[in-house]
């Protein structure tokens, strides 16, 4: 706090709120910044809750005057709570949640703090859709800046971030900037995947939308975990026949109580479950999308099959909410093409997990090419694991398990997804979330536009 001048003037200047380190409410507001109960002992000097773009500009000017860096936060959905840094200004964008739909052009303007559920509920009234995050509480800024592995994104842009048509930002100078493919092109390049490495603060995005699918159906295939190598080979062998509008995910959850009650599985037994979601215009089209996978998996040793379950975007959000049953979280991931050995290692480690709530996921992405933008992750499969538990006395045990698991998976990694990287234990993998050329360009742009690091950038936690 030494050297912070003009506190009273800054407080009066804001439409929103400012909380200084010595204010009575500081610790309560600091802890409330993250949904993760594993709140790190990192203490910003100032917390700013912006109500509008003018508040962001005022905060940038205040930071420059006092020689402070700014860390930006919207929803706080960071498993590593990476936005919470010491000796800086934490700038919270969660109150910037306005949005406006342009029906004629099928676009929507969303401010940084708009949530996935808020956006989808609004678009649904216009029969439009966007590949939001699978968690309804995730806000658009962090999600899109990191690339955005969203609902049906394989068919809608490849990654959600590639649906950004333009963006409004505040530069380190405090100036406003509107960037698109034809103006302020460095900003436009960086905003599509640059994550914490960008050199600006996002106020709002102009996003391309899509016609809302008239029919979304899910097929679930339940297998014993011992069948995992066989079913992964099936998906791998027929991957060329899987269309982008079929979202295929494999998880390793504890068997549902319905199967336990039938005596089909043991209590607390891990299963391998393939969930295939078809986004289509009709039931007939959905069946066609499901057909290649269904044809092979129904001939395998499935314990149970659920077919043609009517599905909504809200079902994705509700499922994510139900999954979050503990207070403390960590996560990690790799992008890989070598799914057979990776799945076998993952199955071995999940049986050793100290938490029954640990959930490994594998999402088929296919081989795709990306537009020229900061996001440049490569790998046909996204492999992630989410660990949750209660009690700070258990932090090390769960974090160590995740670290050991992904240390063994690392030789098979082609890259990583920045939004769900374990930045606490494996910060050295931040550059590998990008191609070598794209990482170098992102660093050069940061140095060019923000040499004083007004915006903190990637931090080694």
Q: Please, how many domains?
A: 3
CA radius of gyration: 22 Å
The top-level CATH class of the largest domain is Alpha Beta
Envelope shape: globular
User: Spatial order of the strands in the main sheet?
Assistant: 15-12-14-13-17-18-16
CATH topology of the largest domain: Vanillyl-alcohol Oxidase, Chain A, domain 3
- The helical percent reads 25-40%
Largest sheet: 7 strands, antiparallel
Poorly predicted regions are none
First-last Cα distance? 21 Å
Task: State mean pLDDT (0 to 100 scale).
Answer: 94
SSE blueprint and pairings:
Blueprint: H1 7-13, E1 17-20, H2 26-31, E2 46-49, H3 53-66, E3 70-73, E4 89-92, E5 99-102, E6 107-111, H4 116-124, E7 128-129, H5 140-145, E8 164-170, E9 176-180, H6 185-191, E10 201-208, E11 210-211, E12 215-224, H7 228-237, E13 246-251, H8 257-261, E14 271-280, H9 283-297, E15 304-310, H10 313-323, E16 328-336, H11 339-350, E17 359-364, E18 381-389, H12 395-409, H13 436-449
Parallel strand pairs: 2-4, 3-4
Antiparallel strand pairs: 1-2, 5-6, 6-10, 7-11, 8-9, 8-10, 12-14, 12-15, 13-14, 13-17, 16-18, 17-18
Protein name: FAD-binding PCMH-type domain-containing protein
Cofactor: FAD
GO molecular function: FAD binding; oxidoreductase activity
Structure characterization notes:
This protein is of the alpha+beta class and 461 residues long. The chain folds into three domains: 4-92, Uridine Diphospho-n-acetylenolpyruvylglucosamine Reductase, domain 2 (2-Layer Sandwich); 99-211, Uridine Diphospho-n-acetylenolpyruvylglucosamine Reductase, domain 3; 215-433, Vanillyl-alcohol Oxidase, Chain A, domain 3, CATH 3.40.462.20. Helix content is 28%, strand content 23%. The protein has helices spanning 7-13, 26-31, 53-66, 116-124, 140-145, 185-191, 228-237, 257-261, 283-297, 313-323, 339-350, 395-409, 436-449, and strands at residues 17-20, 46-49, 70-73, 89-92, 99-102, 107-111, 128-129, 164-170, 176-180, 201-208, 210-211, 215-224, 246-251, 271-280, 304-310, 328-336, 359-364, 381-389. It has a seven-stranded antiparallel sheet with strand order 15-12-14-13-17-18-16, with helices on one face. A hairpin with a 4-residue loop joins strand 5 (99-102) and strand 6. Helix 11 packs antiparallel against helix 12 (395-409). It is globular.
């Amino acid at each position: 706090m030494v050297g912070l001048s003009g506190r009273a003037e800054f407080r009066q200047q804001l439409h929103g709120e400012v909380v200084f380190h010595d204010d009575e409410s500081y610790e309560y507001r600091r802890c409330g910044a993250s949904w993760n109960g594993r709140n790190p002992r990192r203490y910003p000097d100032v917390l700013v809750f912006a109500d509008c773009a003018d508040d962001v500009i005022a905060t940038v000017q205040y930071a420059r005057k006092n020689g402070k860096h700014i860390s930006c936060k919207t929803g706080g959905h960071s498993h590593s709570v990476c936005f919470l840094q010491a000796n800086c200004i934490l700038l919270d964008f969660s109150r910037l949640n306005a949005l406006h739909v342009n029906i004629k052009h099928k676009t929507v303007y969303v401010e940084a703090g708009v949530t996935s559920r808020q956006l989808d509920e609004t678009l649904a009234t216009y029969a439009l859709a966007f590949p939001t995050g699978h968690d309804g509480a995730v806000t658009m800024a962090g999600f899109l800046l990191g690339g955005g592995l969203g609902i049906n994104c394989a068919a809608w842009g490849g990654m959600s971030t590639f649906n950004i048509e333009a963006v409004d930002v505040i530069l380190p100078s405090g100036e406003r900037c509107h960037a698109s493919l034809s103006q302020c092109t460095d900003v436009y390049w960086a905003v599509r995947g640059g994550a914490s490495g960008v050199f600006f603060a996002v106020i709002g995005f102009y996003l391309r939308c899509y016609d809302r699918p008239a029919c979304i159906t899910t097929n679930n295939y339940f297998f014993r975990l011992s069948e995992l190598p066989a079913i992964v080979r099936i998906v791998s062998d027929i991957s060329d026949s899987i269309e982008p509008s079929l979202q295929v995910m494999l998880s390793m959850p504890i068997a549902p109580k319905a199967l336990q009650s039938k005596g089909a599985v043991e209590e607390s037994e891990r299963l391998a479950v393939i969930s295939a979601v078809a986004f289509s215009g009709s039931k007939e089209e959905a069946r066609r999308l499901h057909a290649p996978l269904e044809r092979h998996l129904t001939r395998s040793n499935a314990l149970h099959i659920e077919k043609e379950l009517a599905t909504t975007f809200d079902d994705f959000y509700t499922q994510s909410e139900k999954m979050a049953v503990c207070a403390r979280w960590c996560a990690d991931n790799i992008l890989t093409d070598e799914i057979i050995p990776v799945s076998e290692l993952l199955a071995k480690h999940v049986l050793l997990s100290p938490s029954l709530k640990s959930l490994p996921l594998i999402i088929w992405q296919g081989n795709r090419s990306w537009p020229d933008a900061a996001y440049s992750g490569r790998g046909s499969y996204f492999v992630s694991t989410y660990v949750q538990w209660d009690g700070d006395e258990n932090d090390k045990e769960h974090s160590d398990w995740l670290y050991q698991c992904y240390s063994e998976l690392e030789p098979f990694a082609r890259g990583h997804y920045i939004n769900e990287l374990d930045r606490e234990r494996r910060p050295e993998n931040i550059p590998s979330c990008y191609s070598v050329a794209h990482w170098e360009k992102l660093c050069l742009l940061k140095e060019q536009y923000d040499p004083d690091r007004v915006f903190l950038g990637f931090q080694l936690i």
